[in-house]
Design a protein that fits this description.
The chain is of the alpha/beta class. The protein contains 13 helices and twelve strands.
C-alpha cells in the first residue's frame, strides 16, 4: 500500500469518480491512476469502486470505509509535514480559508492585511461558498479553516469555536417611509417587500424564526448571497433590505439609511474551525487570535483537548463574545 494510491482514490472520490478529470488535476495519466487503484484493490482483497465496463459507477460499502481511513491517513501525513515545517521555518507555509462573501468582504480584510504584513512568506488562499460547502471544504482537508455562521453542526469532524455575535439592520433609501420610523416592528417590516439573504446564508434562519414566532409571513421578493447585491436592489426600489449590520458602510452607503433591527431578531454567532486532529502551525494560531481575540492559543489548545461536544460547549459557555 502506497500513499500515492490513497491520494488517488481520495481524488477520484472528490472528482465524482471521473478518472479523466482526476488525472488532469494531478497532472498524470488516466491509465496510471486506474492501474494503481486496481493494485490497491488486489492487495486489500476488496473492490473500492464498482464498475460498469471501464467506468467507475459508485463507491462500495468497503470502499467507503477505506476512503474514510485514507482521508485520515493523508491528514496525518500532512500534519507530519507541517510539524517538520514548523521546526524548519515557522514563518513560511500556506493557509487556506473557506468562508462566505459577507465574512470575506466585511470581517476579514483588515485581519488578512495585518496577517500578510506579519507573515509575508505565508501563501494565503480564500475560497467562498455556501456554509455547507465551506464546512465540507474544511472537513475534506481542502481548506485549513472554515469561517461561517450556518450549517456547521452537520459536520461532526470539525472543531468549531465561537468568535463573535452579530445582528442585522434594515436598509432603505432616504425617502422611504420606514426611514422616519423611530423603532421598527416586525409588523411594519412585514408590510413591505423584503430583499435579503438566501436561506442557509448569513444567519437567514434567525430572520425566518422571528417572523414565524410572530405568525407573520414576510414578503421576500428577492434573495442573494451577496450583501452588496442586496443593497444594489434596494437602491433600485425592489424592496427593503435586511443585511448583517457589518455590511452597512456609512461612507459608501450614504444614500441608504440603516435602521437597527437587533430588537427584532436573535443575534447570530460566527464560528471559526478546522478538522479535528489538524496540526496547527504557529501562524495559524496567530490568525485565529487576530480574527477572534478571545481565541488565544491556550484557548484553542483547550478546545482541541475537549473529547465531546458537551466539553466544548462548557468551555465557551460563560464566555462573553463581542458584538459586531
Amino acid at each position: 500500500m502506497k500513499l500515492q494510491q490513497l491520494r488517488y482514490i481520495c481524488e477520484v472520490e472528490k472528482h465524482n469518480l471521473n478518472v479523466s478529470a482526476t488525472a488532469q488535476s494531478l497532472f498524470t495519466s488516466q491509465p496510471g491512476i486506474s492501474k494503481q487503484i486496481r493494485l490497491l484493490e488486489d492487495e486489500l482483497g476488496v473492490e473500492i469502486f464498482s464498475r460498469s465496463g471501464k467506468h467507475l459507477t459508485h463507491v462500495t460499502p468497503a470502499g467507503q470505509a477505506i476512503l474514510e481511513s485514507a482521508h485520515e491517513v493523508l491528514l496525518k501525513v500532512d500534519g507530519i509535514k507541517r510539524t517538520a515545517q514548523e521546526y524548519s521555518d515557522e514563518t513560511k507555509g500556506s493557509l487556506s480559508i473557506a468562508t462566505t462573501h459577507t465574512q470575506a468582504r466585511y470581517a476579514l480584510p483588515k485581519v488578512i492585511n495585518n496577517f500578510i504584513g506579519h507573515y509575508p512568506d505565508v501563501s494565503l488562499h480564500m475560497q467562498q461558498g455556501t456554509p455547507k460547502q465551506i464546512a465540507s471544504l474544511a472537513s475534506n482537508g481542502e481548506a485549513d479553516f472554515a469561517i461561517a455562521t450556518e450549517a456547521i453542526d452537520q459536520f461532526s469532524d470539525l472543531l468549531m469555536m465561537p468568535c463573535y455575535h452579530w445582528n442585522r439592520c434594515v436598509v432603505v433609501p432616504k425617502d422611504h417611509a420606514l426611514a422616519q420610523v423611530e423603532q421598527l416592528s416586525l409588523e411594519e417590516l412585514a408590510r413591505h417587500p423584503i430583499v435579503t439573504y438566501v436561506f442557509g446564508f448569513t444567519g437567514r434562519s434567525k430572520l425566518d424564526e422571528a417572523f414565524n414566532r410572530a405568525n407573520l409571513e414576510p414578503k421576500v421578493v428577492f434573495t442573494a448571497v451577496d450583501s452588496d447585491v442586496i443593497k444594489a436592489y434596494v437602491r433600485l426600489g425592489l424592496g427593503v433590505g435586511i443585511i448583517a449590520s457589518m455590511a452597512y458602510e456609512p461612507e459608501l452607503d450614504s444614500d441608504l439609511v440603516a435602521l437597527d433591527a437587533s430588537h427584532l431578531f436573535a443575534h447570530s454567532t460566527t464560528n471559526i474551525g478546522f478538522r479535528k486532529g489538524t496540526f496547527l502551525r504557529g501562524y495559524m494560531y496567530d490568525f485565529i487570535e487576530a480574527f477572534a481575540p478571545n481565541l488565544t492559543k491556550s484557548k484553542v489548545e483547550a478546545a482541541q483537548a475537549c473529547r465531546t461536544k458537551q466539553d466544548l460547549d462548557a468551555l465557551f459557555e460563560h464566555k462573553t463574545l463581542p458584538m459586531r
